[in-house]
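Quick one: structure tokens for this chain, please?
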Amino acid sequence: MVDRNANAMASTETVAAEYYDIPTLVFHWLTVVLVVLLFGTSLVWNYVTPRDRFWRPLLEGTHVSLGILFAVLILGRVIWRLTGMRRFPAEVGLSGLLSRIMYVILYVLLVAEAVTGFVLRWLQGESFQFFGLFSLPALMTPDRASAHQFEEMHNWIGWAIVVLSVGHAIAALVHHYVLKDHILGRMLHRERSVPVSPSR
């Protein structure tokens, strides 16, 4: 009986270790959702409703509020990655090297996007509210010339994140459908237990 219980526990731990932990999954998919929403609201108010007196302020305010949430999420994600995230053996070869480089670049871009977004809003001297619940204090003197430079930087970083994320998604699909490994499955499943057949 003792051996059977020990085998069951070992099997459960082995299978659970094949998947990312729950906080990592939550951080990952929330980041995906927020990137899509932030990019979408920016595109709509800049190219679809640039002069609309109702939709532009609404979309811009939503974008700013989501940006605050995005900054908090990225801070939490970086802390979790450095402290508690479940780690897997690194891939070998060129694929593994490219994967590690991609992750570093993506994290740098995510942090840079959040930072430039805050700096841009402060330099613009405009309202910096979170869904009308509270306002963030201005930490910089408004400067329209510098704001324009940071706006360009913020926009280009946003496009870079989207392009890199699409490449990341394509690579995950290649792993799943062509290489048929477990890379994509780590982000689609949560920890689970596997029943162990009783030994005879």
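Residues 4-17, 190-200 have pLDDT under 50 and may be disordered.
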